[in-house]
Amino acid sequence: MKEVILGLVGVGRIGVMHANNIAAVNEELNARGISVTLRLTDVAEEHARSVAAGLGAEFLPSVEALIASGIDGLVIATGTATHPELIRAGVDAGIAVFCEKPVAMNVADSLPVLEHVQSKNGVVQIGHQRRFDAGYLEAKRAYQAGELGWIHSLRAVTCDMTPPPVEFLATSGGLFRDCSVHDFDILRWLTGREIVEVYAKGSNNGDPAIGEVGDVDTALAVVTFDDGTVGTVSASRYNGAGHDVRLEIQGSRNSLTVGLDNKTAMESAEAGVEFPNGESHKTFAERFDQAYRSEMAAFVELILGLRENPCTPEDAVAASRVADAAQESLASGVAVKVAFASA
Ligand SMILES: NC(=O)c1ccc[n+]([C@@H]2O[C@H](COP(=O)([O-])OP(=O)(O)OC[C@H]3O[C@@H](n4cnc5c(N)ncnc54)[C@H](O)[C@@H]3O)[C@@H](O)[C@H]2O)c1
User: Fold this and answer.
1) Which residue numbers delimit the GFO/IDH/MocA-like oxidoreductase domain (predicted)?
2) Global pTM?
3) Are the C-beta atoms of 232 and 157 separated by less than 8 Å?
4) Fewest beta carbons less than 10 Å away: which of 8, 274, 299, 306?
């Protein structure tokens, strides 16, 4: 049995999910002769101790203690502002790092991290889990196989049912950086093209506290790709019908929608149409359950040298460049060119 010890830092909203997924992935990988052990830490010690106890994982009192305990991979699921120092800590210790998106609060803060990782030949996977989602994978396959022809329009949608806590939003960098960055990443990944310009608008018709911390609850960006193709990326925190993540790709030969199934969070207005008729997803954890588990399994495989890095920090920063441009456009009211400064 090959043994892999993962050290998880941060067991908040997404960290708890990763902790559970690591336990599930361990069971799946056992059949392939791989065993995964989890150790974890969080500054909220009592909560972390109880998460650890529930999973039979070891609790350690700090990141330093976690790293010193001899882990093979560091999983970072703390708030975005802490990512740079924790990525550095993992890379400096010579261990592989999985870090939740984004690399840092913005591109300017990400570039020194990229340089550091490159100078140390660090192995860092960023958590853009949609790259593992079966629907997005099928859309990419179909596009690359020529089944859609050339793409004339792309429409990406990401809607939460309810907003995360305002305290989280205050430090999230804004709706485009926190939420739509997943769409910017997947659009680059799927089309193999760069987004070169963004024009964004937003609105605040929900809790005024969201506006007070400088964010919007709903936004839409018109994006232009380097071959002139146009698309839209929209997001909202108030989608009562359910957690709705879709991508419509319309091409000269055929069209596909990712996320259109019985659980899609909407109803048809047409008489007699009962599709979709299932219970909608309520959270991102539910919607991307399979993808989050697959990305954690991929991290274990990356540590063992069994696969290429599925999402490098360079990939993630490229998506962040688009998110930065969208936030700038939202603030200025004019279209913004995406900066392509070399990292
Ligand atoms: N990939 C996705 O779909 C997705 C979804 C949600 C969040 N995220 C990302 O995950 C990150 C965390 O988001 P969240 O919603 O889980 O946040 P959260 O605030 O719920 O949880 C963060 C946890 O980290 C702990 N923490 C903070 N600093 C720490 C430190 N220095 N050492 C140890 N513990 C520390 C906090 O106590 C908290 O428990 C963010 O960067 C966010 O962008 C990604």
Assistant:
1) 136-256
2) 0.95
3) no
4) 274
